[in-house]
Amino acid sequence: MRQTSDVPLGAAEPWLVAFDTNRLDRMKSRVRDGEHKRFRKDTVPDVLSECDRDGLSWPRRAARLVRRMCEAEGQHPVIESDDRIVVLRTIRTVPPIYDPQTWSQLTKDRTLHELGPISNICANWGMVLSQGLEGRRQAAAKARESVQDDPDSLEFLDCAIETIEAVLALANSYVQEARRQGRNDLADILAHVPAHRPRCFHEALQALRILHAVVWMGGHYHVGLGRFDQYMWPYLKQDLDSGRLTLAAAEELLAEFFISLNKDSDLYPGVQQGDNGQSLMLGGTSRDGADAVNELTWMAIRVAHYTNMIDPKINLRFTPHTDLSLLTLATQLTRKGLGFPQYSNDAVIIPALVKHGYELEDARDYAVAACWEFLIPGKGMEVVNIGAVSMPAAVDAGIRKGLGQGENFEQICQRTAEDIRQQLQQLVDAYRKLFLPPAPYYSVLMDGCLERARDLSHGLKYNNFGVHGAGSANAADALAAVRRFVFEDKSVQPQELLAALEANFEGYEPFRRKLAEDGPKVGNNDAAADALMTKLFEWFADACEAIQDNGRGGRVRPGTGSAMYYVWLARGKEGMREPAVGATAEGRRKGEFLSANLAPSNNAPIRGPISVLQSFAKIPYRRVFNGGPITMELSGSVFSDAEAVGKVAMLVRTFAQLGCQQLQLNTVNLETLLDAKKHPEKHKNLIVRVWGWSGYFCELGPEYQDHVIARHIYAM
Amino acid sequence: MKSGVVFDIREFALHDGPGIRTTVFLKGCPLRCSWCHNPDGWIRDPQIIHGQAGDRLIGKDYTSEELAALLNEQADILRANEGGVTFSGGEPLEQAEFVTEVCDRLDNLHIVFDTSGDGTETALRLVAEKVDLFYYDLKLIDSTAHRHFTGADNAPILSNLRLLSSLGASFVIRVPLVPGVTDTDENLNAIAETVRNLPGLVRVDLLPYNRAAGGKYSNLGLKFCPLYDEQRELRLNAEPFERHRVPVRIAASDMPIRKPVPA
Ligand code: SF4
Fold first, then answer.
1. pLDDT tens digits along A374-416
2. Residue B66 counted as domain residue
3. Is A48 in CB contact (< 8 Å) with chain B?
4. What is the CATH number of the domain that holds B68?
5. Structure pTM?
6. What is the span of the domain harbouring residue B32?
7. 8 Å CB contact between B222 and B39
8. ipTM of this model?
9. From A108, A184, A278, A562, which residue has the greatest number of CB atoms within 10 Å?
10. Using an 8 Å Cβ cutoff, are B231 and B153 in contact?
């Protein structure tokens, strides 16, 4: 008769893995403790000298780098006694292939994307696995015959082959080491993959591990893992059907693969620790339009729940009709507080991609780049984040100039739209001089590069740029406040507002509170504020669509993300092309953060998540389709029982039913609570549960905050 | 048209009834429970609270039309997710006419009414016609103890409960478990005996005491002085209900009663 709802209802706990976790529990804690780092070497192969000595071309240098890195790693293959999936990076840094002087000469007058090497795209892993590197070598050899009198093409193919051989040699070093250790199981696997099509799931995972690790060795980063449950499924299905693997054994292999992705990731470049872009996509629609969810989709979520590590970053594609039980399982993963899965709505994204020139089959095959931008694995050499348009800066310039000159609201809007256009133009102009260095090994992993004898850096089927419209909620709130208070109820004089902004609201506190609290706010399903946010995105899309060619045969995709721009655009950052903004008319003081991605302005009074979804459902996603999630934080305690978890899954489904595009649910973590205690002004909307209802954390007395914090520690 | 005073509207209230719900907190309560965690719901009039992040006005007037329009904006979503609207407080019986007017204007939504039961019979009859499910608090059966810890007699609460049952309403009984006060065998046994044969009883929810109960007091210029020992260990005592074959559930708590044990 009695039910206790704090333990999950029902006997089945669908998120639990079925294998005996002893071995991997130990492996996890070793990786967490960094024990594998003892194998790391301080020496870095000197590639530069030989490149200079032999006067190698850029493509040849890039290939030589991959070869020397593979050779260096091959000298000390690391196989620990309980490893079943191997390859460990031991060389900390990727050596240069040009000295700094030559590098700056070669790149002067050119725009480099971030660090330079191609990053933030996704290979066609399925293709490479199924052909094997031998298959890719044959493709290169075949292409070689038809380009005999084209030296550039020949050189590219030779470089690609050099990298293929380097990877095969690395695999062979592991074979030798495995045999030496009496690990014939591993030796047999690596003698077959990545050279040939994997014969089983285990081989497929091992092949992916080595192929993926080598991309990083070539200096590339944010190397996406694509639609993992699609390209891996044939291998797993075959094993399950034939009885070669049990479900539990398959889970164990997958868990080891996931753990392995956490071994080298601290060596990978990123804005902050963990920002390494090892994104992995699950679910969604298959290339032929069928439901793509399979046993591996479920398994990958369960296993990520078990591993509970920051990599890989799980993304889940779904539609308004997806089975609620899958979303419930995914919610169990959200509960872990890792900030994923991130959700993408196929029903919105696929039609938008098709509208913008993606073939339907390709559009159905989308994955995400490091963070959220949609791209087609193997077919996209898209530079999905060339920068951000600061919507708050555009609005602020419009308000200050417009009000200063006695203009009406319409004229302020025109100024804003024009400012957005100019900001965009500047970014795109800078990127017209974009230079992508040759990437022979990455080219091996892409569709058609070998076949056409052209390096990835020259482009693939899709070559668009992406730009994000950052700070949209703040910008819309600022415009809405001006419309409401200056032009509609006329409770604010233009000069008063200008003076207050100029003074950073010092001496204007009641006035600032009026702007911050009484104006229409994005996130409350408020027609006045939401309409202006929609306008901002339309102006942004107009500006993007006006650019016919980005210089690489592509267009410019407007997006809704912010990445770190919510900090940088608010505070400025050295070398940033985008403008920083001072105090703004929604009552935000200079230096205070903007909203991250799609989220209400930080201190806007908001009724709750349903209104937030309704607000952001109004964005014209058919035109604004570069990605960038609605970002919500839930208190960890909302997951207190199975019923509540089911409700969070319903919330996720509602996101899709309302026609939103992308969603990131975070569970409030301890650091947030500690920060909220120190800086309550930054966390006015932080909600924690207190006895059957939720409360604003910042309105609890300090001792109670401590209590919540303590409880939080306990609940983990 | 009636207007009412609302001190909060909270969407996605996970513990206020089935499905995805929005909870409306109505201001004003006749009781002063010693463990009350919502002192901002006590007095009917809007008031200023002084939080660390600045002052905030608590309590806003709504006409029934305004409030219903706001809630109806999400009616499709609430219905599609097996949810609806919950009226809570404070004590929503104090604004019964307002609530019934709002209910009349709601677009076919499931309604939960979360009450202490301390109100007039008229008020209760009025809302009973509109409400799908009651969350009805029973704190203490001993009337002296009830007066001591809540400042009011429990006779109207108990008679209202019988009335509600006789009207054919469905109700969940909610018992706040306060250490040494409500969690005793004696009290829980008396509650079980009171409710076990009442038609319309869905189940009993035991709500474990949360030590953050006093969190809001200082912001209102009040002092939290519990008439019990907060540190005393709480007894999660479902046995009296099980013995009387009353369906019982220990509601989700912030302090896990048992940590989930991996199988
Ligand atoms: S009935 Fe509820 S709101 Fe009223 S005093 Fe008691 S606990 Fe507080």
1. 999 999 999 999 999 999 999 999 999 999 999 999 999 999 9
2. yes
3. no
4. 3.20.20.70
5. 0.91
6. 3-250
7. yes
8. 0.90
9. A562
10. no
